[in-house]
Amino acid sequence: MTMRRINVVILVLLAVAFLIILQRNLLNLNDFLRHENAEAVPGALLPFEPDFAVKHKPDVARTGVEIPVVITAAEERLGAALAAMNSVYRNSKSNIVFNIVTLNDSVDHLKAWMSKADLADVKHKVIVFEPKMLEGKILNDPQKKEEVKPLTFARYYMPMLLPSVDKAIYLDDDVIVQGDIQELFETSLKAGHAAAFSDDCDSASSKGIVRGAGNQNNYMGFLDFKKDSIKKLNMRATTCSFNPGVIVANLTEWRLQNITTQLEQWMERNVKEDLYSKNLAESVTTPPLLIVFYKRHSSIDPMWHVRHLGATGAANRYSLQFVSAAKLLHWNGHYKPWGRLSSFSDVWDKWYIPDPLDKFHPIRRHSDDK
After folding, report:
1. Is the Cα dihedral 157, 163, 166, 172 positive or negative?
2. How does 235-245 read in b/e, with b if 16+ C-beta sit within 10 Å?
3. Do 286 and 310 touch, CB atoms closer than 8 A?
């Protein structure tokens, strides 16, 4: 009788255990099916549907050393700045602080967008840039009106904009970050170097030389070596240039070397002597930086600045696999990812956040045009 009772008890316990396991499996299946149905429900009809609203990573605790990121936010490009910040923030668990440099007339629009973009609680500071700082330092050339907008030069003034910061990252607004920004922040700068850039002759960017724009991967493409002021510098015209759309800056060293003052001096000399190359295809901010940082800058990992995505033929230059593997993508060039003719705009779309004031509208091809 005793053994029989023991066997009965064992069978009852096994039956109970089986029922508990079955119940848990059924509950998990129910949750899975509800999740699948929720994913299948279509959203509101938009020109395109940004993935951010549904698929962004849940927020995590932000601890550790603060990582200051400087980015400009021009009124006509606010959507770009928000997409860039969104990609930085969602791909990292680091303690990021955005320093958003804008003009006074864009502050309200920027704050409204941040508050509605699920980024309101992200650490950030809005810094108003004063265009009067540039008086007498830039040429009034109608043909380069787009390139000489005030915020383009904000990167020159990082130590003034972030007076208590020792190290910072600067990003152009037409970038998307796919890696953890802490990795970029930890870029090692050599002693005495105030900044690190990605060289235009590195393995990743050498494929992206702008066609028809002269030698845009060396100093000759940016500076007029026929001018005496340039000759006296004894710089090699064939020296590899760099792109200042991504900068890791040692602001302590920047201050010690008075880098901002040096940059301003070359801006003023260009106004008087017209020192920049006549074939200059990209931003007028680059030539002064090339002079001041000639052989005095550190290097960024090429995969942390894959550029020329905004140039003609970018889709043929880079494979989808390469673009997916890149840590940072830069659409420098004429064709921006919020425009109709850009390559790899679908990558940018994943991070775009719609404008709550309905002023910024990415342009996309009609389905019949694809």
Report:
1. negative
2. beeeeebbbbb
3. no
Cα–Cα dist 150/160, whole Å: 15
Distances (CA, A) of 324 to 306, 318, 364: 11, 10, 21
In which residue are the tokens 């509950």 written?
27
Token output for 340: 């109709």
107-128 per-position pLDDT tens digit: 999 999 999 888 878 999 999 9
Angle between helices 78-90 and 107-116 (to 10 degrees): 40
SS3 state at 65: strand
Integer Cα distance of 66 and 52 in angstroms: 24
In the predicted structure, residue 9 carries a pLDDT above the cut 60: yes
Rounded Cα distance, 190 and 215, in Å: 28
Instruction: Report whether pLDDT(369) > 50.
Output: no
Distances (CA, A) of 244 to 3, 36, 154, 290, 299: 83, 44, 12, 9, 12
pLDDT tens profile 314-358: 888 899 999 999 999 999 988 999 998 899 999 999 999 999 999
Task: Tell if the pTM clears 0.90, that is, is over it.
Answer: no
Phi and psi, residue 136, nearest 5°:
80, 5
Q: 193 vs 157, 200, 241, 256, CA distance in Å?
A: 17, 18, 16, 11
Backbone CA torsion sign across 299, 305, 310, 315: positive
* Cβ pair 329, 30 in contact under 8 A: no
Structure tokens at 225: 């070596």
Q: Which tokens belong to 279?
A: 């074939």
pLDDT tens for each residue of 146-189:
557 899 999 999 999 999 999 999 999 999 999 999 999 999 99
Copy the structure tokens of residue 113: 């967008």
pLDDT, tens only, 252-297: 999 999 999 999 999 999 999 999 987 765 678 999 999 999 999 9
Q: How far apart are CA 76 and CA 73, in angstroms?
A: 8
Amino acid at 109: H
Residue 349 and residue 48: Cα distance in Å, rounded? 8
Structure tokens, 48: 């395109």
